[in-house]
Amino acid sequence: MTRVMDMLKINVLVLCVLVFAKAHAQGTDLFRAEYTYFPQSKSDNSFRRFRTFANVPLKVGEGTYVVPFLEYRNVEYIVKDDFILTDFGSDRYESYEVGLGYTFPMKNNWRFGARIGILVASNFDEGKAKSDDYFLTGSVYFIKSEKNREDGGKPWRLVLGVQYATTAGRPFPLPYLNYFRELNDSWSFTLGVPKMNLKYRFNEKNNVQLYARLDGFYANIQNDEPTTRGVAEDVSMTIAMIGPGYEYNFTKHISAYIYAGYTFINDIRLRDNNGDDVVTLNDTNTFYSRVGLKFKI
Length: 297
What we know:
CATH class: Mainly Beta
Number of strands: 16
Largest sheet: 14 strands, antiparallel, barrel
Distance between the termini: 48 Å
Order of helices and strands: HEEEEEEEEEEEEEEEE
Number of domains: 1
Shape: globular
CATH topology: Porin
Strand order of the largest sheet: 1-2-4-5-6-7-8-9-10-11-12-13-14-16
Helix content: under 10%
Radius of gyration: 20 Å
Structural class: mainly beta
Strand content: over 45%
């Protein structure tokens, strides 16, 4: 029974990480730059990340677009704790992703979207990418958007899709579901993953929200780390947190945001080539913070 529960937990975490990684494929952000920091409770370890990405829609027909996508992440995970099992030396990871999306309108306010990409994620200890650093990503979405309803009802949006990435280590696509709805001119909510929230809009410039969301990263370790439990070949982090957020809109399309929160899942581990845990670096819940700037449609 314990092993079944462990396997269920692993598959849920894999789903969460994959959904987080690909969720912005259907988003309205054209550009984003953000910085994430959270210290580790009962630990001298710390996590910092800079992330930026850009979507570049190129119109090829009426309502039809080809969308090149670029993303860069720089992660500094400093490990100072004495794990006895291993002298873990890597603390800097980078990832680069190049993707190409395609979207076109369908009947009854539905839209189809798909994207395929190549991700390179590693500590790059050898100064260049190796074959184990490359991963394939892909996603397919159907989006129903009711922004201007003829019956006078409040706007809503539904996203249904499947996503696949070789970083998950599971040879099948995983589902995605997201639902957004406005309740009135001030209140709205989102249900699904990687984020759920309840948002209150003071005016056109300011809004606050209570949110729950997933975050994480994955990278190959080029020079495998030997331990008494096995050889660590990649590092993986899955976290889930809840807390308040604030967003300020400089214009209709440019916004700054800040989120604070506390994790209720904090799973940072070294894994072997089979995806099994070798060393748990941290699983103690802790404070989380993220600030950024975005340009949206």
